[in-house]
From TrEMBL:
It is found in: Nucleus. This is Pre-rRNA-processing protein. Residues 151-250 form the Pre-rRNA-processing protein Ipi1 N-terminal domain. The lineage of its organism: Eukaryota, Fungi, Dikarya, Ascomycota, Pezizomycotina. GO terms for biological process: rRNA processing. It comes from Lasallia pustulata. Belongs to the IPI1/TEX10 family. Component of the RIX1 complex. The keyword rRNA processing applies.
């Protein structure tokens, strides 16, 4: 090495910073350090692409009770289990349980008894008439239609309590579903419905409240309705359904069922009408006078014969309903035609009432 090279080397040593070997940063390590993402204060470290989050937050953990046994549960135990699930908080669980019960009732052999009697099934089903989920109420109606009619007839008054509560509910969907259930019950047990305690007068009041008709008529008023009847769309269809159900209800309570025709020997014996036809059809024919009984509750009273229902209807409801029907007929459309059908049923049901009173 020449003298010039030696001098340059010594001069370089004079200006070199003495740094420990472990702190020396190469160019590649410096670039990697600068490219590394820096964490901000208060921020979580970023997760890897294959990170699996196993943490969870839950207010409650629901574990269905299960049992590992070699023998499967019986149909009766499964039926009771799904009945108990009707009080579940999950809408889908209530709907699925109703679907299972409907299938179990419909799939039973002909004339075979139910897994549980209707007196046990109905207390679990009736609160669902006021359920807030439309699918649950639709499935409930399917289940009610699959029940044996003869067993349901004995529980009409129990059903009617929840139906009237649904008819006066604030939610329009629940009112519509209650009308569907009432229509089914009228087809199944119409005479039993109108003749049970409170089945005639209380149900009529619910109809008036639902339709927006007043109980009394104001003299000189053109219309007794608080709202217009001729609404299109879903509101008009709901009004038509309500009026059709009202017509069925009035038909069940006022129109005589299977009017008996005169026997062939009547022409030979004219006095048969006087001696037999005019006899009272109920055991206590003067019960409406209430001569020695306690004060009555008209709403909760049992009107078991047509004459009693005609009498209370004429006194309390006939004028108001006729005036409201006339206003509805003036609106025209489907609602007008439905109101005309109700009017026709009303005229047919009250036919002969005044003649009987005069007699």
């Amino acid at each position: 090495m020449g003298s010039s090279a030696k001098k340059k080397k010594d001069k370089k040593k004079d200006f070199q910073v003495l740094v420990p070997k472990q702190f020396l940063l190469t160019t590649q390590s410096l670039i990697a350090f600068l490219q590394k993402p820096k964490l901000k204060v208060g921020k979580a470290r970023p997760k890897a692409s294959n990170f699996t989050d196993t943490s969870f937050k839950s207010k409650a953990i629901v574990v269905n009770q299960q049992s590992l046994t070699p023998a499967a549960p019986s149909l009766s135990s499964q039926f009771s289990h799904h009945l108990s699930l009707l009080t579940s908080r999950s809408d889908s669980q209530r709907r699925d349980s109703l679907s299972y019960l409907t299938t179990a009732v419909a799939a039973r052999p002909v004339n075979a008894p139910l897994q549980q009697p209707v007196s046990v099934i109905l207390p679990s089903l009736l609160p669902l008439l006021l359920d807030g989920n439309n699918n649950v109420r639709t499935q409930l109606l399917k289940l009610l239609r699959s029940l044996p009619p003869r067993d349901v007839e004995d529980h009409v008054s129990q059903l009617l309590l929840y139906i009237r509560a649904g008819m006066t509910h604030l939610a329009a969907d629940i009112r519509s579903s209650s009308i569907d259930v009432l229509g089914w019950l009228l087809e199944l047990a119409g005479p039993e419905l109108v003749s049970c305690a409170g089945g005639w007068m209380k149900t009529l009041k619910c109809f008036l409240a639902m339709l927006g008709w007043p109980n009394e008529v104001t003299a000189g008023a053109w219309s007794t309705s608080k709202a217009s009847f001729g609404k299109g769309g879903s509101e008009g269809k709901i009004m038509v359904k309500n009026l059709n159900t009202l017509a069925s209800f009035l038909r069940a309570g006022l129109v005589p069922v299977n009017e008996s025709q005169d026997p062939p020997f009547v022409s030979k014996f004219p006095l048969w009408h006087v001696q037999h036809q005019l006899l009272p059809k109920v055991s206590n024919c003067y019960a409406h006078l209430n001569l020695f009984g306690p004060p009555r509750d008209e709403e909760s009273e049992i009107y078991e014969d047509r004459e009693a229902r005609q009498r209370i209807f004429h006194v309390r409801f006939q004028c108001a309903i006729e005036a409201a029907l006339e206003a509805a007929k003036r609106e025209g459309g489907e609602v007008g035609r439905a109101a005309a059908a109700v009017k026709k049923t009303l005229v047919e049901g009250m036919d002969g009432f005044e003649q009987e009173e005069d007699f």
